[in-house]
Amino acid sequence: MELKKTIEVLLFVSQGPMKIETIASITGVKSEDEIKKTIQELSEEYESRQSPFYIVEIAGGWQFSTKREYAPSIRKLYKEEITLKLSTSALETLAIVAYRQPITRAEIEQIRGVEVSAVLKSLVEKNLARISGKKDTIGTPFLYGTTQQFLIYFGLKSTEELPSLEELNVEEEQK
């Protein structure tokens, strides 16, 4: 089997981003550079024929994605399915978790100035936030961080791609 076609099929049928290591183990190709080069060739082919979809690196893996201009048609197709909607308080809490992780509930509440237990529970249930450990302090509170689903939802390779606070024009809290 041709490597390019095999990788194309794997990315097509995958339910989420595929890690290079997974592709390597399935194809038997030991060189991650060869796999990345093949993915790049596929990407260039889609781009050259102005395909409505492309291959994107996201959440530590690779997957197909559609171009934005086709979003209205796709929304009509899946109009019956529930889309993930986040309230303003959920977005604020998630942003704090994303930028300050690992962080405790009390630390989030100190920043937001409101109680966030229900919001955090909702974010964990939606698999956007997770318990990432316990803080070594009195009461050993849970620490929260973001998940791979968070990266997928926001189309990020990693949290390092989050815009800096300066880019968002947000002033750091003075301590």
Could you explain the architecture of this structure?
There is one protein chain. This protein is an alpha+beta fold and 175 residues long. The chain contains eight helices and five strands. It has helices at 3-13, 20-27, 32-48, 71-77, 88-100, 105-112, 117-125, 148-154; strands at 53-58, 61-66, 103-104, 129-134, 142-146. Strands 3-5-4 form a three-stranded antiparallel beta sheet. Helix 1 (3-13) crosses helix 3 and helix 5 crosses helix 7. The mean pLDDT is 89.
Query: β content, as a range?
Result: 5-15%
The end-to-end span amounts to 60 Å
**How would the global form be characterised?**
globular
Strand order of the largest sheet: 3-5-4
**Major beta sheet summary:** 3 strands, antiparallel
Secondary structure tally, helices: 8
Topology pattern, helix = H, strand = E: HHHEEHHEHHEEH
